[in-house]
Amino acid sequence: MFLREEDLREGMELLFFAYRDFLEEADLVLARHKLGRAHHRALYFIGQHPAITVSGLLKLLRITKQSLSRVLADLVALGMIEQTPGLRDRRQRHLALTAKGIEVERDLTAQQRALLARAYRQAGAEAVDGFRKVLLGLITEGDRRALMARRDQAAETGQPVAARAGVGRAGL
Amino acid sequence: MFLREEDLREGMELLFFAYRDFLEEADLVLARHKLGRAHHRALYFIGQHPAITVSGLLKLLRITKQSLSRVLADLVALGMIEQTPGLRDRRQRHLALTAKGIEVERDLTAQQRALLARAYRQAGAEAVDGFRKVLLGLITEGDRRALMARRDQAAETGQPVAARAGVGRAGL
DNA sequence: CATATATGTCAACGTGACTGACTTAAAATC
DNA sequence: GATTTTAAGTCAGTCACGTTGACATATATG
Fold first, then answer.
1. Structural domains counted in chain A
2. Is residue B28 part of a domain?
3. A119 interfaces chain B, CB cutoff of 8 Å
4. What does the alpha-carbon distance between residue B136 and residue B140 come to, in Å, rounded to a whole number?
């Protein structure tokens, strides 16, 4: 396989611009809700991993607990997430979206999902497969497990994770 | 084409994790050089667009001139970039990497290029094509032109842009 | 000559990350 | 049962990097 530096730099720029334009979709909605990107990330992952613990979320986001605690405090104050003590281990706080949290989360990703769906359709199923393969190759071992958790969870019940989480239902 | 919400969310997470892990490669080097991500971006794009003007760079980066000016001041002070007044329009400042700038830029992207090259090889040529197609579909009109400029420039001379810019030469 | 443009600068501010130190409650281990 | 580890939270200070707004200067353009 022929890999000129030029080709690699093109790939880097594709990632840069695509990621930026992808985030921009959500930024507009975030501004409406007076939330920041950090809130979006927290809402998203709590939605995808209902009953996740604080430390679990910390591992996904790879930020410090001091950073996360401010975000969670905001979201609790806004009535978007709920914390329930663990039954087995009462030190843990299990996080979940409230009805309002689910609504805001869907609102935040709606445009992003539409954009990605359009890109997927334009590119075709084979291209999507390549897209996934390359990105997966960029992801480090630790994060790859986070993604696999999604898939395993979906496999367990035969249901999409999102649907089980109460964030999905609509099916695009 | 079958697009479940679950599939779209997987794509979003792939982007999130891949982009984060990809940046992490450069962050380690940035820390060694005591530079931030903003410096990296400036060095990169100046390297790819030699003699770019300040306003040209502003359009690529989509930040304010106040933000950029601090970064450029740092890079000038560190001897990594040079500013030369425009000949045709003497208000303009054309930016270019110095020898030191080229060296640092190569150092910053070396690991990233290696990682992307590995991902490309593992995934195969067809997958790379799909990767490019999907990302291009995520990119907005304005940014798409920035990317096309790369390609057109390369086509003009039959040489990779990077090589003409003095940043490329090595070929992967 | 008047106006628009390219660049730079001063000041203030916001977000979201960081380190470091310390607390509390509960679980786990010796 | 006492000790240690773990999960979570808090207080305080800092930093990188983006923002808005106001203004200054040189040069180009009508």
1. 1
2. yes
3. yes
4. 8
